[in-house]
Write a structure and sequence with these properties.
- The structure holds 2 protein chains of 2 kinds.
- Chain A is mainly α.
- Chain A has one domain: Helix Hairpins.
- Chain A has 5 helices and no strands.
- In chain A, α3 packs antiparallel against α4.
- Chain A is elongated, with a radius of gyration of 21 Å.
- Chain B contains 21 helices and 2 strands.
- Chain B is globular.
- In chain B, strands 1-2 form a two-stranded antiparallel sheet.
- Chain B has a domain of 216 residues.
- In chain B, α2 packs antiparallel against α5.
- Classes of the chains: A mainly alpha, B mainly alpha.
Chain lengths: 128, 497
């Protein structure tokens, strides 16, 4: 049991982050907190990818004359880092769009709390 | 001109992406250039789509290596009958909707600062869809998925007062879907060490018994289920479609969910194979039953709606269910029905949302209860096209909608899935109920005011796409045997069951 917990502590940490982010996105009523949850979720996935790149006693993926290039086990895998750079860019773009939407919502309804928002939306004349 | 031939698989993407960037710049010179460029780019994409489909059907699949790097190191674009077919559908519908968009965009987005970005973002969205369909690399697919999704959020948010709220809700759920996809991809990547679809397919048999692979696939299917609004993950759809401006909802409704369905078909039938996917967990069966639930739920909810666009939105949930049902049947007939329905529903929903846009432009509303015979008198062509679309949705032969349901029904019979067959039949009846409710008002209810309603049919740019789509529904129905034999039979033959 302890081996399952301690041996995979990195995965358990990521798992906790995923749950935390998901909880924030689904349960929290404030729209900004939903976004924070979204960020935690995205970071957890980025860390999951990066954790799969790590090798025991390996160094950064830049060719080192002392180590040579014949043994790939001496370098950690660079591919995951490249992928996650792209994923970070996507996450940043998503955040940008999300905050732009929040500004538009706040300008129109004067609140970012979901319950108040729903109340004000139902009082609104439905012109659409 | 040989460079067009050698680079054809990548050209739609390479053409649309710069177009989306050039449109705002060109609009600085003359604002009318925005629409002209968007139309030119999407028309060129349609032409390339036809070229590619003809070529693939003649010579077999084409693999294109980006930058000359062969897979699995490089990213490859793959044109096979399925991707070439879906790309042509996406671009053709996209072009017709953009052709229609001129007047609704000018009316519903009165500020000049909104019109130019609309065209830029719409082209960017089409570019994203093209990329999703043509790519042979899972991570590249994720990037295209997010490019198209971000464009979708923007297109929805420019609508009415409540549109940003609907767009934000969609953004949260869409990002959950994308994150699930990425997480599932992480599982598959750690198990196989590759992101290339063909490579992954070759490696999978060695690891398919691993639980991590099953978890990864389950996460990907859940994520795509969110993106394609598979019941019960459809929560974002009705508000998003209703509050989006007419020009956006006509672009999003026919294409957005279909691309998610395409990814599901690609992964389940062309990478994993249904047998391997079902080894740990009966995924396709679950998708099928959820889809059957969605068909009934969407149809019943559509009957309860008082507003045309909202009714069409719920009807979309039901229609996506048909595609899911075809996936769930997991036999060649079901797959053919699902892909045929991707095309048919894109044409039907595109047509119906365009008609809703026409109603809003001319009548100023699209409330079903306020429609009456004057709508028909004022817009005879639009209402006639609506009737064709509605009859096709119900599934009256020889219109296109009948044939996809026919193949799905045949697939259900072949599987002896009598519940699915009953769902298809019942939902056709429900379709008839909610569409005849509108048709009855438009054709039979006498207008309250006795005065002669003047004939105020919409402008040619709004009428022609609607009529082309209505004619297409008849043509696609009549020619369905040719489409199924010529294209979809090849798709089904290449799929892994």
């Amino acid at each position: 049991m302890t081996e399952v917990l301690l041996g995979h502590y990195g995965y358990w940490f990521i798992f906790a982050l995923v749950i935390l982010g998901f909880y924030g996105m689904v349960v929290k009523r404030n729209l900004v907190k939903k976004l924070i949850g979204m960020n935690i979720f995205q970071v957890a996935i980025i860390m999951f990818f990066l954790s799969s790149a790590v090798k025991w006693q390996a160094t950064i993926p830049i060719a080192d004359p002392a180590l040579g290039t014949s043994d790939p086990d001496l370098y950690i895998s660079p591919l995951q880092h490249c992928l996650m750079l792209t994923a970070i860019v996507v996450a940043v773009a998503t955040n940008g769009v999300a905050y732009a939407l929040l500004i538009a919502i706040h300008k129109r309804f004067g609140t970012l709390h979901e319950d108040e928002l729903l109340a004000r939306m139902t009082h609104d004349l439905d012109l659409d | 001109m040989t460079w067009i031939w050698t680079n054809a698989p990548a050209l739609p993407v390479v053409l649309l992406l710069p177009a989306a960037i050039i449109i705002p710049l060109a609009a600085l010179i003359d604002r009318r250039l925005a629409r002209a460029l968007a139309l030119a780019a999407s028309l060129a994409a349609v032409a390339l789509g036809i070229l590619n489909l003809v070529r693939v059907l003649a010579d077999g699949p084409v693999r294109y290596f980006m930058g000359g790097w062969p897979p699995p190191i490089g990213i490859e674009y793959v044109l096979d009958p399925l991707s070439a077919f879906v790309i042509l559908v996406v671009n053709a519908i996209g072009f017709l909707v953009l052709l229609h968009a001129g007047t609704p965009v000018a009316r519903e987005l009165p500020e000049a600062g909104q019109q130019v970005p609309y065209y830029a973002v719409a082209v960017l969205m089409l570019c994203g869809f093209n990329g999703i369909v043509v790519t042979g690399d899972f991570f590249n697919l994720y990037v295209w998925l997010e490019i198209s999704s971000l464009s979708l959020y923007g297109l929805i948010a420019v609508g009415g007062r409540k549109a940003p709220v609907a767009a934000f809700r969609y953004l949260i759920l869409g990002t959950i879907g994308a994150c699930f996809y990425l997480l599932g991809l992480g599982f598959l990547f750690t198990m196989t060490g590759t992101l290339n679809m063909a490579d992954l397919k070759a490696i999978l048999p060695a690891v398919s018994a691993e639980p991590a692979v099953a978890v990864g696939l389950g996460l990907i299917v859940a994520g795509m289920g969110l993106k394609m609004a598979l019941f019960p993950l459809h929560g974002w759809l009705p508000d998003a479609y209703t509050y989006a401006p007419s020009a956006s909802s006509a672009l999003i409704a026919p294409l957005g969910t279909k691309v998610g369905a395409y990814v599901l078909i690609r992964i389940l039938f062309f990478v994993f194979g249904v047998g391997a996917a079902a080894k740990a967990f009966p995924l396709t069966t679950v998708v099928g039953w959820l889809a059957a639930g969605g068909i009934l739920y969407g149809s019943v909810m559509a009957m309860a709606q008082r507003e045309l666009k909202r009714m069409l939105a719920y009807s979309s949930i039901a229609q996506v269910g048909y595609i899911g049902l075809g996936i769930g049947l997991a036999n060649p007939l079901g797959l053919i029905g699902a892909i045929l329905h991707v095309m048919n529903h894109a044409a039907m929903k595109g047509l119906l949302f365009l008609v809703a846009g026409n109603f809003r432009t001319v009548l100023g509303h699209s409330d079903i209860a306020r429609l009456d015979g004057s709508a028909r008198r004022r817009m005879p062509w639009t209402t006639a096209a609506f009737a064709v679309g509605a009859l096709s949705m119900i599934g009256i032969p020889p219109l296109a909608g009948f044939f996809s349901k026919w193949y799905l029904a045949l697939g259900a019979v072949a599987r002896k899935q009598w519940v699915f067959l009953a769902v298809i039949l019942v939902s056709s009846l429900l379709n008839a109920v909610y569409f005849f409710r509108v048709l009855e008002r438009v054709y039979l209810v006498k207008p309250d005011a006795e005065e002669d309603a003047p004939r105020t049919e919409v402008t040619a740019s709004m009428r022609i796409p609607v009529l082309i789509l209505a004619a297409a529904l008849v043509l696609l129905g009549v020619l369905n045997a040719a489409i199924v034999k010529g294209v979809l039979a090849k798709v089904a033959a290449a799929a892994l069951f």
